[in-house]
Design brief:
The chain is α+β, with helices and mostly antiparallel strands. 34% of the residues lie in helices and 20% in strands. The protein folds into two domains: 291 residues, Aminopeptidase (3-Layer(aba) Sandwich); 117 residues, Alpha-Beta Plaits, CATH 3.30.70. The longest helix is centred in the C-terminal third of the chain and has 19 residues. The protein binds ligand BES and manganese (II) ion (MN) (2 copies). The site of one manganese (II) ion has 5 residues, from loops.
Length: 465
C-alpha cells in the first residue's frame, strides 16, 4: 500500500470523529463583526490551538487589536531541508446568522440531515464559510500524521478571526510576523468547486471596499403635512443619489470608476466558454430570470471580471406597523464596491464620496463612515507548477478535470500574501453555489467535507514531491 492510500484509509475511517470536531467548532458563535461575540471568537481560536497542539503542531494564539489569530507550525520528521514549506489559511469567524426565523434548525446547533434527493448536508453557520473548509486541511493533516507519523511537507497554519469583518488587523500582523509566515506558497481554503462533481482552483478574486452614508436634513423628524413641500427629505435625497449610481446599461456612473479595469483576454473568455455555464440556470436557482448588470456581458464575466457598486442596506424614517406621517431627519445606506484588475480601493472610495457629496443640497449634510480600508482584487497566474500539481491531485480524487475559475467574492488575504510577504496563493475549496453562504440555512455537503479531506491528503502528497 502506498503512503497516500494508507492515509486516505485513515481519513475515511476517521470521518465521524472529524465531523464531531467540526460540529464542536460550529457550536461556538464566532461572529467577528459583533462585539458581543468577542469572547466566543477567542474561545474558537483557543479550541483550534488546542486541536492543532494535540496533532503535534506548535500552535499559539496571537493577540491583535481585534480578534486573535491562530498560528501553528509542523516540522516534518526526517526533513532533509529539502521539503517545501507551505502556509495553509482559513478563517474561524462567521457572518451574523440573521434573519434567525428563516433557519430550519438553530444556526449554532449543527445538524446532519439527508435531503429528499438523498444528499447528506451539514447545516449551521460556518459549516461552509469557513469552518468546514478549514477543517478539510486540518483533518487531512491529522490523517497523514496518524498514518505515517509526519507530513510530507513543512506546514504553517494561519487561521484568521476577522475575515468576515474586513481583516483590519491582518496587514500589521503579516508585517510584524513576516519572517515566521513567509513560506514557499500559501494554500487558501475558502472557495468553491465548479459543481458537486467538478473540482476547481480559483485564480481570480474580486477586491472590495465599503462605505456607509448618513444624510441629515431637518434638525428633527417633522410632520409631513405641516412641513411637506418646503422641507428637504433625506430619504428622497438618498434614493435619488443611489439611483444615479448606474446608467441604463448597468454601468457605474462614478467618474473614474473603471480606471484600471481591463478587458478579459480572448483565451480566457474561450476557457470560460468551455465551462458551459448556464446564465439562466444560475438565476433560476435564486428565483430570478431577467439578467441585470452590465448590458452585453454574460454572468461569468460580470461576476469574475467586472466591478460593481451595490447597496447592501438602506434605512431611515418610520418602518413600523401602520403609518406615521413623518419627514425623517436622517437617512442611511451601506454600500460595497467589488473591484477588479488594478482598481484601487482608496481611489474608488474617494471618487464615490465626491460623487455623493455633489448630490446633497446645500442645507443638508452627508457623513461617511467606512470600516477597514478595503482590498484590491487578486489575479493568480494559471501556469505555475504548484497549480498544475494541485489540479492533478484534485483530478485524481474526483475523476474529472479540475476547472480553473474566478470568484466574485473577496478574500483580502490573498492580495496581502503577495504584496506583504511576496507569496503566491493556490485557492482550493469545496463549497458549492447553493451552500447559502452568509444566508440562513448555510450548509456544507458531507461529500464536500469528505472529498475535501481526501483531496488535501492527495495535494499534500503531490506538492511534497
Ligand atoms: N469565502 C468568502 C469569499 C467567497 C465567496 C469565495 C463566494 C468564493 C465564493 C469570504 O469569507 C467572504 O465572504 N468574503 C467577504 C469579504 C469581506 C471583506 C467581508 C465577501 O466576499 O463579501
Ligand atoms: Mn470565507
Ligand atoms: Mn464569508
Amino acid at each position: 500500500m502506498t503512503d497516500v492510500s494508507r492515509v486516505l484509509d485513515v481519513a475515511d475511517k476517521g470521518l465521524e470523529q472529524s465531523l464531531d470536531r467540526l460540529f464542536d467548532l460550529v457550536r461556538i458563535p464566532s461572529i467577528s463583526t459583533d462585539p458581543a461575540y468577542k469572547a466566543d471568537c477567542r474561545r474558537t481560536a483557543e479550541r483550534i490551538v488546542a486541536d492543532l497542539t494535540r496533532l503535534g503542531f506548535s500552535a499559539s494564539l496571537r493577540d491583535t487589536p481585534g480578534h486573535p489569530m491562530v498560528v501553528a507550525h509542523f516540522e516534518p520528521k526526517a526533513a532533509q531541508g529539502k521539503v517545501p514549506h507551505f502556509l495553509f489559511y482559513g478563517h474561524y469567524d462567521v457572518q451574523p446568522p440573521d434573519p434567525l426565523d428563516k433557519w430550519t434548525t438553530p444556526p449554532f446547533e449543527p445538524e446532519k440531515r439527508t435531503g429528499k434527493d438523498g444528499v447528506v448536508r451539514l447545516y449551521g453557520r460556518g459549516t461552509a464559510d469557513d469552518k468546514g473548509q478549514l477543517m478539510t486541511f486540518v483533518e487531512a493533516m491529522r490523517a497523514w500524521i496518524e498514518a505515517t507519523g509526519t507530513l510530507p511537507i513543512k506546514a504553517t497554519i494561519l487561521i484568521e478571526g476577522e475575515e468576515e469583518s474586513g481583516s483590519p488587523s491582518l496587514v500589521p500582523f503579516l508585517k510584524e510576523n513576516k519572517a515566521e509566515l513567509t513560506c514557499d506558497a500559501a494554500f487558501v481554503c475558502d472557495t468553491s468547486m465548479w459543481d458537486a462533481k467538478t473540482p476547481a482552483i480559483t485564480t481570480r478574486l474580486r477586491g472590495m471596499v465599503k462605505d456607509e452614508i448618513t444624510i441629515s436634513g431637518p434638525r428633527i423628524d417633522l410632520h409631513s403635512g405641516a412641513y411637506g413641500g418646503p422641507a428637504a427629505n433625506p430619504i428622497r435625497i438618498l434614493s435619488k443619489l443611489l439611483s444615479k449610481l448606474h446608467d441604463k446599461n448597468g454601468k457605474v456612473t462614478i467618474p473614474g470608476f473603471y480606471e484600471g479595469v481591463g478587458e478579459v483576454p480572448k483565451e480566457i473568455k474561450q476557457q470560460w466558454q468551455k465551462l458551459k455555464f448556464s446564465d439562466r440556470k444560475f438565476l433560476k436557482e435564486v428565483g430570478l430570470s431577467v439578467p441585470a448588470g452590465e448590458k452585453g456581458k454574460g454572468v461569468l464575466e460580470q461576476i469574475w471580471a467586472r466591478p460593481t457598486a451595490e447597496v447592501n442596506g438602506i434605512w431611515g424614517g418610520y418602518t413600523g406597523a401602520g403609518t406615521k406621517t413623518v419627514i425623517p431627519s436622517q437617512a442611511h445606506a451601506k454600500l460595497t464596491f467589488r473591484l477588479v484588475g488594478k482598481q484601487k480601493p482608496e481611489k474608488i472610495l474617494k471618487a464615490f464620496r465626491a460623487f455623493a457629496k455633489a448630490e446633497v443640497p446645500k442645507d443638508c449634510r452627508i457623513e461617511f463612515a467606512s470600516y477597514g480600508s478595503g482590498s484590491p482584487a487578486s489575479e493568480i497566474a494559471e501556469t505555475s507548477p504548484l497549480i498544475r500539481k494541485s489540479a492533478k491531485a484534485l483530478k485524481d480524487e474526483f475523476g474529472r478535470e479540475t476547472a480553473l475559475v474566478g470568484s466574485g467574492g473577496s478574500i483580502p488575504i490573498v492580495r496581502y500574501f503577495k504584496d506583504v510577504l511576496g507569496m503566491d496563493s493556490v485557492l482550493i475549496g469545496f463549497g458549492l453555489n447553493d451552500d447559502a453562504l452568509h444566508s440562513p440555512n448555510e450548509k456544507y455537503n458531507l461529500s464536500s467535507f469528505h472529498k475535501g479531506i481526501r483531496s488535501w491528503v492527495r495535494v499534500l502528497d503531490a506538492v511534497g514531491r
